[in-house]
Write a structure and sequence with these properties.
Layout lengths: L10 E5 L2 H11 L3 E8 L4 E8 L2 E8 L18 E5 L2 H10 L8 E2 L6 E6 L5 E6 L1
Parallel strand pairs: 1-4, 5-8
Antiparallel strand pairs: 2-3, 3-4, 6-7, 7-8
Length: 130
């Protein structure tokens, strides 16, 4: 018998600068705040964010959280990808917001266009054309 998963419930991200990351995910990427909680016992914020009406990302702040290596690529979760209708248009929005974005590439297996950029802590993010 195999495990029956329904869907991905959420992705959790720990940031180093809560205000900066909150602005990035809500103002630049346009995610919607579902709930925001300050947990005094942990000196930690938890921000629940929705992508297009679906709750998917938990943004946390923790004091003194260690830095996760990204480059060279480390083992483990590689990146978080968002589906978009037009990669070039979405890339331009990021560029206009002052975000450094790689050149658009094409997935050899699917023929779909995609592009990588990073959040304020260097977490690799991808825009993938539907």
């Amino acid at each position: 018998m195999s495990l029956k998963l329904n869907h991905i419930h959420h992705v959790a991200i720990i940031c180093s600068d809560y205000a900066l990351s909150r602005a990035f995910y809500t103002e630049v990427l346009g995610l919607t705040v579902v709930a925001e909680t300050y947990r005094a016992a942990r000196d930690s914020w938890k921000l629940d964010l929705a992508v297009n009406g679906h709750y998917q990302i938990e943004l946390f702040s923790f004091p003194d959280a260690p830095v996760r290596p990204s480059w060279p690529e480390a083992q483990g979760l590689r990146h978080l990808a968002f589906a978009v209708e037009d990669v070039s248009a979405a890339r331009q929005v990021l560029l206009d917001a002052g975000i450094e974005v790689e050149a658009v590439r094409v997935d050899d297996l699917t023929g779909k266009r995609f592009v990588f950029f990073s959040d304020p802590d260097g977490l690799p993010l991808e825009l993938y054309e539907q």
